[in-house]
């Protein structure tokens, strides 16, 4: 399925308008060697005898959906809703940005613009555009040829385009509205609506303002009332900063005469938790975990590190004493409370 969309406008719901649109689409299809063989339609005007005769003349099979069963023609219904939603979105955006010029009457331009963009875009899980899948040729527009619908444009004056000059104090361009791409010209030719003459012309010397920076937005809009309605007037925004313990509203302000809030010292959430090793609050009296070696609060149950002052004193006092694993020795308490091994030395050797 190509998912190609072809749209036409009717001045009325008469069957003559319907047959005219059908003939136009058949001529477009014949240009690309595509023949329409089957038509799935709703009831109503499609069941008119004039439309049936037109289908019979072209040897086309015409079938209808059941009454109230639009899901039987679900593909067409789905794409009608998608294109309508797309056109509605771009039109409302332009109306919000430039309400003095763009109105609801521009829907007849927004709808073809949405259709052309759809036919020139590759859909998800597809490798071809709908236009290429239906006609076998690349679409006449590229995605970069499309601009923001309803955006302001500035067109060079006709005198300057023709090589003439304008007055020194006269504008060199006139403002217009971008309403889509032309189907009868090059893809680089946009259609421009003139707000003063209400004419639509294809232009080449155009500068686009797709961010609406050169036009004024709505001035009568009450921003406060709009936001209050949007976010519910009963809602309140709460804020907590590191200098206060209680949250406050954004509409309450701090005054210079008010006293500065004081920062309270944080306390441990678990007072029974053991402090970190090496901290100044360590108390090893009866503690189950030994302190770090080399700390100034060593007890008699801890062995000092080699090279510490206590160890050096012991090594100096026992320079003449050499203890071996096979030699008998005695233990005596040292002034530092540590138990050290001592031995007596005589001329005959080691004596216990």
SSE string: HEHEHHHEHEEEEHEEHEEEE
Helix fraction? 25-40%
Using DSSP, what is the number of strands? 13
Q: Output the strand order for the largest sheet.
A: 6-5-4-3-7
Classify the secondary structure makeup into a structural class: alpha+beta
Radius of gyration: 45 Å
Fraction of residues in β-strands: 5-15%
Which outline best applies?
extended
N-C termini distance: 108 Å
Low-confidence stretches: 310-352
Query: Can you give the mean pLDDT?
Result: 78
**DSSP helix count?**
8
The profile of the biggest β sheet is: 5 strands, antiparallel
Labels describing this entry:
352 residues; extended; two-stranded parallel sheet; disordered C terminus; alpha+beta
Describe this structure in words.
Residues 310-352 have low confidence and may be disordered. The radius of gyration is 45 Å and the shape is extended. Strand 1 (38-41), helix 2 (49-57) and strand 2 form a beta-alpha-beta unit. By secondary structure, the chain is of the alpha+beta class. Helix 3 (74-97) crosses helix 4 (107-119). It contains eight helices and 13 strands. The longest helix has 24 residues, at 74-97. Helix content is 26%, strand content 14%.
Describe the SSE topology:
Layout: H1 15-31, E1 38-41, H2 49-57, E2 61-64, H3 74-97, H4 107-119, H5 130-135, E3 152-156, H6 158-161, E4 173-181, E5 190-193, E6 200-202, E7 206-208, H7 223-230, E8 238-239, E9 248-249, H8 309-317, E10 330-333, E11 339-342, E12 344-346, E13 349-351
Parallel strand pairs: 1-2
Antiparallel strand pairs: 3-4, 3-7, 4-5, 5-6, 8-9, 10-11, 12-13
Helix pairs in contact: 3-4
């Amino acid at each position: 399925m190509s998912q190609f969309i072809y749209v036409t406008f009717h001045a009325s719901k008469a069957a003559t308008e319907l047959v005219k649109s059908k003939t136009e689409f058949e001529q477009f299809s014949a240009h690309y060697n595509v023949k329409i063989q089957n038509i799935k339609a709703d009831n109503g005007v499609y069941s008119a005898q004039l439309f049936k005769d037109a289908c019979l003349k072209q040897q086309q099979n015409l079938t209808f959906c059941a009454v109230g069963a639009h899901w039987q023609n679900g593909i067409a219904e789905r794409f009608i809703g998608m294109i309508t939603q797309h056109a509605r979105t771009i039109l409302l955006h332009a109306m919000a940005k430039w309400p003095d010029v763009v109105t609801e009457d521009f829907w007849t331009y927004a709808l073809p613009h949405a259709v052309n963009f759809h036919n020139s875009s590759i859909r998800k899980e597809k490798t071809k555009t709908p236009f290429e899948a239906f006609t076998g040729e690349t679409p006449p527009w590229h995605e970069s040829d499309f601009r923001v619908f309803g955006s302001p444009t500035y067109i060079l004056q006709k005198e300057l385009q023709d090589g003439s000059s304008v007055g020194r104090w006269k504008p060199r361009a006139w403002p217009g509205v971008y309403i889509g791409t032309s189907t009868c010209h090059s893809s680089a030719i946009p259609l421009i609506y003139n707000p003063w003459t209400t004419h639509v012309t294809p232009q080449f010397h155009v500068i686009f303002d797709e961010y609406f920076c050169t036009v004024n937005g709505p001035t009568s809009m009450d921003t406060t009332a709009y936001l209050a309605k949007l976010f519910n007037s009963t809602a309140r925004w709460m804020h907590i900063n590191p200098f206060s313990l209680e949250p406050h509203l954004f509409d309450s302000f701090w005054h210079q005469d008010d006293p500065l809030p004081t920062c309270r010292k944080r306390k441990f959430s678990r007072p029974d938790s053991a402090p970190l090793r090496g901290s100044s609050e360590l108390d090893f009296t009866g503690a189950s975990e030994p302190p770090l070696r080399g700390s100034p609060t060593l007890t008699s149950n801890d062995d000092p590190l080699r090279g510490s002052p206590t160890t050096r004193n012991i090594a100096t006092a026992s320079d003449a004493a050499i203890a071996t694993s096979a030699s008998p020795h005695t233990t005596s308490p040292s002034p530092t409370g540590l138990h050290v091994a001592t031995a007596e030395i005589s001329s005959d050797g080691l004596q216990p």
